[in-house]
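Dear colleagues,

I hope this message finds you well. In preparation for our joint manuscript, I am sending the Mechanosensitive ion channel family protein (Vibrio harveyi) sequence together with its predicted structure, so that both groups work from identical material. I would be grateful if you could confirm receipt.
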Amino acid sequence: MIFALLDALNDIATFKGITRRMPIKSFVQLIKLFTFFVGVVVSMSILANESPVIFLSGLGVATGFVMLVFKDTILGFVAGIQLSANRMISLNDWIQMDSYGANGTVEEISLTTVKVRNFDNTVSMLPAYALVQNAFINWQGMSDSGGRRIKRSVNVDVTSIRFLSDEEIEKLKSIRILRQYIYEKSHEISDYNQEMSEEPAFGNLRQMTNLGMFRAYINAYLKANKDIHQYMLIMVRQLEPTPEGIPLQVYAFTNNTDWAYYEGVQADLFDHIYSIMPLFGLRPYQMFTSNDA
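The corresponding structure tokens are as follows:
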């Protein structure tokens, strides 16, 4: 009867969504285990017509044997309490634990195991103690934040980087989102070059480069894109050169964390970046193939 009442309370908590914030099932199992233990001790004391204290005192002798035989169960029991008390995971959280091949949504949390529904619809049963002892990723913070990170680079062919001519700069002014940057950068460079007027050697003067202009364009494009979260970090940075060219990294967040939506936004963004590169006189790096001969 007590177990039925506990199950009913667990079902009510699940229906009302309380288990989303706190895994009630773990506590229900803990209460069941304690109730069962008390029931066994009381029953044995009644049958033997002895005080329950006598049976409890005898537990010390069997402790070592019990810990050896039920080591995994005890570890899982303690870990389950830690997971529940510290709220390390909750129902419907997206977690990833590569060592156990788990990458999906938490469906059930018990005292000894955690059930994960992977994205390929397979099910992983993780020992609760493994989540305490080993590293895992809980992606729920990302989902709750409302933004999903894009962090991808396009490798620029080094041989295509050069200074821009005045004619090219005038042509690029036709791009609305670049006008402010060109205006401010032109004045900055002009002021610097005036200070160097006494030594007008080519190497002493500053000029706009096609790579710098392209980087400014991508940054402005991201800030004008309705699919990019405007209250999170937006950055386009140049990474250390590699044998595959100069990586130009896009770092931004979509304003929706849905996987399909995120992949669509990211693909559209880089489709545009690769397509617009020739306008700046740049080429993406690509390994030589037989088609290039």
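For the figure legend, we might mention the following. The chain has a mean pLDDT of 83. Strands lie at 94-97, 102-109, 113-118, 123-127, 137-138, 148-156, 235-238, 246-254.

With kind regards,
E.M.
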